[in-house]
Write a structure and sequence with these properties.
This protein has no helices and 25 strands. 33% of the residues are buried.
């Protein structure tokens, strides 16, 4: 127990440098990519005697991965090099960075509790209208000595789907009616930028179901980091009028229907082409694709509209039938060459 510690709280390993306070209490850190180290002053923990004191927080290290996995490791110094009965460590996280939500502005509380004669236990608590705690998966948190005298590290392994979060750390030791603390930072909160956005689309970590495929704004209708879902332009063929002759067809009109209003329709043929905009009834007519077409000639129709999976139709002029669809491809809503149509193009 705390009273049997071999070293008083003043016995120290080499201390970390003090954190620099900025802007009325915001704590600074050395930070590169998705890794940050926050230092807390040596010996700023509350104490009642050399045997009754809060463990001294020296350093908080946070590391994130591109998939949103986050490790928060707190280095502390005390005689036992572990949390003991009466010790509790909390990492209080303002996940949405809104001080008006959660409890006292915090949304998540990571808790490590020391015990006399048994190992440290861990809980993840969600702070909504009520406090809801769970133990978490196996091996998600640890309390382990470092090998340096009186030094140990408590770490939590969690995940995040936000760009950044604010947090603070509280170590407390309760003896009888007395509770002593060390708070890090001493003023304000730490801020950690997750930077878990490998496709740079603004959707981070676990919130991005397609971490290697960028999807922004209207291309991500349900804000899950994946393109889509997109509607599919279902036009299957063109309508035409004309006269069939022995070696050619005299084409008078080519029209597509069932097209989303406002869609762009591009007509191409050996005799030239043009583009038209689908009207409110969903139809578009070519003004230039007409005249005499030898059998075997191909007319191409490309139909696109932003946020829709487009269609490419290739229609051949054939004897006795007129226009016949010989190829139908889909045009990805995100751009690119026409491809074979599939449900995958609709996105999620």
């Amino acid at each position: 127990m705390k009273g049997l510690r071999k070293l008083p709280f003043l016995a120290a390993v080499a201390g970390a440098a003090c954190a620099v306070l900025l802007g009325g209490g915001a704590a600074s850190a050395s930070q590169a990519a998705n890794h940050a180290v926050f230092a807390d002053p040596t010996g700023d923990n509350e104490s009642q005697s050399t045997s009754v004191y809060a463990s001294d927080i020296r350093q908080v290290e946070v590391t994130s991965q591109n998939n949103g996995a986050i490790k928060i490791a707190i280095t502390m110094v005390d005689g036992d090099a572990k949390l003991v009965g009466g010790d509790q460590l909390e990492v209080l996280i303002d996940y949405d960075r809104d001080r008006n939500t959660g409890q006292s502005g915090f949304d998540i509380d990571l808790v490590a509790t020391g015990h006399s004669g048994s190992a440290t236990t861990f809980a993840l608590c969600r702070l909504g209208e009520t406090r809801s705690c769970e133990e978490g998966p196996t091996d998600w948190a640890h309390d382990a000595p470092t090998g340096a005298t009186g030094t140990h590290i408590v770490d939590f392994n969690v995940s995040s789907g936000v760009a950044a979060f604010d947090f603070g750390v509280v170590e407390s030791y309760t003896s009888g009616s007395t509770t002593l603390k060390d708070i890090a930072p001493n003023s304000g909160l730490y801020t950690f930028e997750v930077k878990a956005d490998p496709d740079n689309d603004g959707v981070h970590g676990t919130a991005d179901n397609c971490p290697n495929v960028p999807a922004r704004g209207k291309n991500d209708a349900n804000h899950n980091g994946c393109p889509g879902p997109f509607k599919l332009i279902g036009t299957g063929e063109a309508h035409f009028s004309g006269e069939l002759h022995k070696t050619f067809m005299r084409l008078r009109t080519v029209t597509v229907t069932g097209v989303p209003a406002g869609a762009k329709v591009v007509f191409s043929s050996p005799k030239g082409g043009d583009s038209a905009k689908a009207n409110n009834s969903g139809s578009a007519k070519s003004k230039r694709v007409k005249g005499d077409f030898r059998y075997g000639s191909v007319i191409t129709i490309r139909i696109t509209k932003p946020q829709f999976v487009g269609v490419l139709l290739r229609e051949r002029v054939v004897a006795k039938r007129g226009l016949r669809v010989v190829q139908r491809l889909c045009i990805p809503a995100t751009g690119g060459a026409p491809v074979k149509c599939s449900a995958k193009l609709r996105g999620s």
